[in-house]
Amino acid sequence: MPLILDGTIVRMSHMRRLKGAVAKLSVKPRLTIVQVGDDARSTLYIQQKQKFGLEAGIAVDVEKFPISISETDLKAQIEALNRDNSIHGIIVQLPIPDTFNKDAVINTISPRKDVDGLTGISREFLGLGGDVHSFIPATAMAIMSILSFYNISVSGKRVTVMGRSRLVGLPTAELLKREGAIVSVCHSKTENPKGITKTAEILIVAIGKPYLVDDSYVTKGVVVIDVGINPVMGTGFEEEVFPKKVVGDVFWRKVAPLSLAITPVPGGVGPMTVMSLLENVYIATCAIVGEKPVL
Ligand code: NAD
After folding, report:
1. Ligand 1, CB cutoff 6 Å, lining residues
2. What is the C-alpha separation between 88 and 134, in angstroms, rounded?
3. Residue closest to 126 by CA, chosen among 138, 112, 137, 142
4. Tens-digit pLDDT profile for the chain (295 aa)?
5. In the CATH hierarchy, which top-level class contains the domain 138-268?
6. CA of 76 to the centre of ligand 1 (A)
7. How many helices, marked H, and strands, marked E, lie in the chain?
8. Secondary structure, 3-state, 54-87
9. Does domain 22-136+273-289 have CATH number 1.10.580.10?
10. 22-136+273-289 and 138-268: same fold?
11. How far is the CA of 201 from the centre of ligand 1 (A)?
């Protein structure tokens, strides 16, 4: 049996530390989430952030706008949040409707409050090795935290990242390189991805394709981090899925027996992602109020 990399256990450990650190601050950290429209999945994710924010002692507010708001007005609202000294972190809950220029909206967030690490400035700093005022996207941090909690060193290891999104794949590859891993990235245009994934000692999968990665993608003894969150139902998969459930990008039943360690879905990267966002809010607060982070 592989070692199960349980994100809820990692979250509990990080929550304990974060609560202690937040309690020592002279102010209550505050995150504002900008939501455009009424997407049900986004609302669910926001509720998760509020629930764990409450537990950590971090205020999580939502500024909700109708999809009819103009891009100019939306940016003006974000600029007002930038100026509000009681707010330490700002995120735009994604996705936002295609009618908006997503990058332009996100780039309105002050880099000091960009706790999702998605503004152009944060991304630039990530590539350069980081900076006090640049934040790392939460999912990438969550992956690194899980590996670190289970004492899985990436230094000198062959690591393959499947997926190159700005939210997950790219920042994860950057962090891994920083930690001394030998990183390969494959994506939708990669010819013969199995030729790369089979060389991996650690395989990180973030592609949004339910069950795609099966035993033909891995070599025995691999460590697998499955980032995928795919709600599925029906018969169009390698096994019948009924009723509806959430599955990863990795076909657990076929890959787990070959793995040394593997994250479950749900219960792997997901639980740690919210935690990493809250850690970023804490760090943003420390920088803004001039107090030393103790995480
Ligand atoms: P995305 O659609 O932005 O990017 C997907 C990436 O996968 C692209 O770079 C694409 O080139 C690559 N890809 C697609 N098919 C591929 C294939 N067959 N082989 C190799 N690469 C392929 O998605 P995203 O935002 O990066 O999210 C990926 C998955 O992770 C989704 O299931 C999403 O729901 C999940 N996710 C989970 C968390 C979490 O906290 N666990 C957070 C964010 C995203």
Report:
1. 139, 162-165, 167-169, 186-188, 190, 193, 206-209, 212, 227-230, 269-270, 273
2. 13
3. 137
4. 899 999 999 999 999 999 999 999 999 999 999 999 999 999 999 999 999 999 999 999 999 999 999 999 999 999 999 999 999 999 999 999 999 999 999 999 999 999 999 998 888 777 655 544 579 999 999 999 999 999 999 999 999 999 999 999 999 999 999 999 999 999 999 999 999 999 999 999 999 999 999 999 999 999 999 999 999 887 777 677 777 889 999 999 999 999 999 999 999 999 999 999 999 999 999 999 999 999 8
5. alpha beta
6. 31
7. 10, 11
8. HHHCCEEEEEEECCCCCHHHHHHHHHHHHHCCCC
9. no
10. yes
11. 20
DSSP 8-state assignment for residue 99: T
Cross-strand pairs, 160? 184, 203
Which of 6, 8, 143, 187 most suits a substitution to test ligand 1, by most atoms within 8 Å of the C-beta? Answer: 187
What is the torsional sign of CA 103, 47, 135, 148?
A: negative
CB atoms within 10 A of CB 52: 19
> In sequence order, what E strands does the chain have?
3-4, 30-36, 59-65, 89-92, 158-162, 182-186, 202-205, 222-226, 230-234, 241-247, 259-262
Query: Which residues are bridge partners to 205 per DSSP?
Result: 162, 226
Q: Which atom of ligand 1 sits closest to the CA of residue 212?
A: 18
Give the Å distance between the CA of 86 and the centre of ligand 1. 34
Domain boundaries, the chain: 22-136+273-289, 138-268
CA atoms of 2 and 281, how far apart (whole Å): 34
Is the Cβ–Cβ distance between 61 and 1 less than 8 Å? Answer: no
Instruction: Quote the CA–CA distance of 56 and 275 in Å, as a whole number.
Output: 9
